[in-house]
Amino acid sequence: MIGLAFAASLLQAGVKIEASGEIPADALDPLGDTVGGIGSGLIYDAASGVFLCQPDRGPGDGALAFRPRYVGVKMEPRGDQLHPKVVESVLYRDEQGRPMTGLTPDDPTAATPRMKDGRTCLDPEAIALAPDGTLYVSDEYGPYLYQFRRDGQMIRRIVLPEKFRPRTAAGVTEFTGRQPLAAGRNVNQGGEGMALLPDGKTAVLIFQSGLVEDGGRQSPTTRMLFLDLETEKPVAEYLYPFATTNLTTGEPLKPEQLSVNDLVALDAKRFLVLERDRIGRDGSIDHPIAAYKSVWLADVSRATDLLNSRTRELRPVEKQFLFNLAALVKDPRDLAAKWEGIAVMPPSDEKAVTLMMAADNDFLTPVIHDEGKTYPFPRTEEPVPTQFFQIRADLPAP
């Protein structure tokens, strides 16, 4: 064990946790609603010094009504403590200006994910800030890529290529989750990570697991999709391979244990990717201990572009390990299960990056507050706060 620990420390050399903080599980946002899920995605707005954090579809995995939004969080660092403070909460609104809903779609005939009463269903997972100040948000229900104004009003809905659309064996589009899928994104496994390239003209999405026809959660690879934001057309696509070993413990990893949860673009070819297991603090008292919450440096330079290459040799994205949060902290028993957000912040350069890393706490608090009403949340035996870590990491040479 001593040798393994020494090897793990060498792997993570040049990586340091600079500060940490958390938001209590029972905190309320400026709208009076429970603050939850906000680590599903985040981006740093250098102009305001605020992190724009993305909650997902809400408590209960689409079973409880929740109005999707983004949440602004201001860090007030003192020493090694971050002291995060929620400073804004902005609802997303559809084409007609109506608040969207996180409920699972129930209209099987709708061309887009909707409720039978006409509400647009949105399961937001990642957020990016464009040079013009608008926001791009990835949606798992479609899957789609939405563009919003900063006041939450929808500008457009970008439809992803047909291969990602969830379909039954009969070829029917299936957004409701009630029918088995034969192709497209897996259920609740859509464009989990998303970022804009530095020029702001291209969006890059990475899917949480493989497409259904690739094996879904058992697939050893998932997809990275590049979209031209002006034409709304795909321009490149690559295979991203899941890790097969937890490099800090030596334990083997299987694809069904893992998911990809966020993406940061360093340049047009190199990305930071957050890859994790599914265990940790999950609202139960006797929860399993987090073991694998890792950030990798991914490079598409020599990978096969599935859209533009005719070669039979498929080269996946190349990866270099940066760190495993579960091996950096003093006690991994304290870590939430769902680490889903990473954002680059100053100071960062070609040699090192400063990252903010955030967890989705799954709204794990005994009582949910929403639109002036309260709901018991029986999944919560133990409340789980929203956790943040600020980490400085050296980068391998380009």
Gyration radius over CA: 20 Å
Low-confidence sequence ranges:
1-6
**Biggest sheet record:** 4 strands, antiparallel
CATH architecture designation: 5 Propeller
CATH topology: Tachylectin-2, Chain A
- What fraction, in percent, of the residue positions are helical? under 10%
Average residue pLDDT:
95
Number of strands: 22
Distance between the termini: 33 Å
Q: Secondary-structure element order, as H and E?
A: HEEEEEEEEEEEEEEEEEHEEEEE
Class from secondary-structure proportions: mainly beta
Description:
By secondary structure, the protein is mostly beta strands. It has one domain: Tachylectin-2, Chain A, CATH 2.115.10. Helices cover 4% and strands 35% of the residues. It is built from two helices and 22 strands. A four-stranded antiparallel beta sheet has the order 1-22-19-18, with no helix packed on it. Strands 2-3-4-5 form a four-stranded antiparallel beta sheet, with no helix packed on it. The longest helix has 10 residues. The N terminus is likely disordered.
